[in-house]
Amino acid sequence: MKTTQNISDFKQKALHWANQFDVCCFLDSNQYTDTYSAYEFLIAADVQAELKTNSGYALEKLKSFYESHKTWLFGFLSYDLKNETEDLLSANADKLQFPDLYFFAPKHLIGFKDGKAEVLLGNDSILNEINSFKVLEATSSPNLKINQKLSKSQYINQVSGLKEHIVRGDIYEVNFCQEFFAENAAINPVETFESLNKISPTPFAGYFKIHQHYILSATPERFLCKRNSKLISQPIKGTAKRSTDLAEDEQIKINLKNDVKEQAENVMIVDLVRHDLTKSAVKGSVKVDELFGIYTFPQVHQMISTISCELNPETHFIDAIKNAFPMGSMTGAPKVKAMQLIEEFEFSKRGVYSGSFGCISPNGDFDFNVIIRSILYNQNNKYLSFQVGGAITYQADAEKEYDECLLKASAILKVLGK
């Protein structure tokens, strides 16, 4: 059944309706036009079946879970699944305590496109339920004490240490991140997400609730998607702040497009992604569809490249995800050494941050984002966290990299009352 809806009104009601359940997932394109997105937004709620596991054989379990259900699945992959794809470990502090992998087959699923809501799973009557749902008035916005795991001087010191590894030739580039956190944080997750999505609407935004764990995401980045036999990855490397002056803002875009340092960072990750896709591709089919594309978001301009390939018919699509995970834009090059140094130099376990969440359709198509610009929240222990980072290369200026971290954090800090 399809019914024509006012998109913003229906979206809000549907999200609040879904939030009544212990488990729900909302994926929102915020009406950005995209060649590969099948729906403007999807809302999945309540659990028909679920898979919750930690790294070890998690991706093999996901493969079995998909094969036994062959229905829509929604879920997330933690960055720390790296420990089952490579000989790595995670020993840094983890106050959030998300599982490494969680997927569920929903009882209810609504897709929205072309101005119409469509029930993809469940009873058509849920559209009436949603349309008549009363959204309570928002409570006051949070005003939290946000702490930083690293001081500015510690951050600069860690960047200096990483640059020594670059000079030695251990790596060319590494994505170095720092954590912001609040303890005893009492927030209304769904309202906090709505505020974030309003201040910073992005094409791969989403809200994910599993019991007391929440992901509130304003990510602009796609990790990997599959459409029929085609795999597409769109890494982001290259950031510039916006200006309210239109002429200046346009010049900032031009400068970003032609910035040799940003291009060097971007092309290193493009090469890494090409290499990752080669493991799953029909021989000779990997290609760069767009190099150094400049895309504009409310707080920043971003440099985004698009790489694609034909999936080898002998490669299971879950193995294609495994072959590219974790994404190159959040690790570095060479990838394994970069991940070893990330573990050594960062102070917090990444967990879900710089992992991915998204959906798999019954025919094995999928779309997964990169979990950046996202608030992570454990309602049980009232621990709230978000991380920001950037690419460290030989040319990196630690002070500028630190300022870029604050720019990337700006929308979240605003939402949290800072």
Feature tags:
single chain, 31% helix
Continuous helix count: 11
Class of secondary structure makeup:
alpha+beta
Helix content: 25-40%
- The radius of gyration over CA amounts to 20 Å
Average pLDDT across residues? 95
Beta-sheet strand percentage?
25-35%
Tell me about the largest β-sheet: 20 strands, antiparallel
Which ranges are low-confidence, i.e. pLDDT below 50, for 5 or more consecutive residues?
A: none
Q: How many strands appear in the DSSP assignment?
A: 20
Please tell me what the overall shape is: globular
Query: Distance between the terminal alpha carbons, to the nearest Å?
Result: 44 Å
Structure description:
- It contains 11 helices and 20 strands.
- It has helices at residues 7-18, 58-69, 82-85, 126-131, 152-168, 189-199, 246-257, 260-278, 317-324, 335-345, 398-415; strands spanning 2-4, 23-28, 41-53, 73-77, 101-113, 116-121, 147-148, 173-182, 205-210, 213-217, 222-227, 230-234, 236-241, 287-296, 300-310, 332-333, 356-360, 366-369, 374-378, 383-392.
- It has a 20-stranded antiparallel beta sheet that branches.
- The longest helix has 19 residues, at 260-278.
- The protein is globular.
- The relative contact order is 0.19.
Secondary structure topology:
Layout: E1 2-4, H1 7-18, E2 23-28, E3 41-53, H2 58-69, E4 73-77, H3 82-85, E5 101-113, E6 116-121, H4 126-131, E7 147-148, H5 152-168, E8 173-182, H6 189-199, E9 205-210, E10 213-217, E11 222-227, E12 230-234, E13 236-241, H7 246-257, H8 260-278, E14 287-296, E15 300-310, H9 317-324, E16 332-333, H10 335-345, E17 356-360, E18 366-369, E19 374-378, E20 383-392, H11 398-415
Antiparallel strand pairs: 1-6, 2-3, 2-9, 3-5, 4-5, 4-17, 5-6, 7-8, 8-16, 8-20, 9-10, 10-19, 11-12, 11-18, 12-15, 13-15, 14-15, 17-18, 19-20
Helix pairs in contact: 6-11
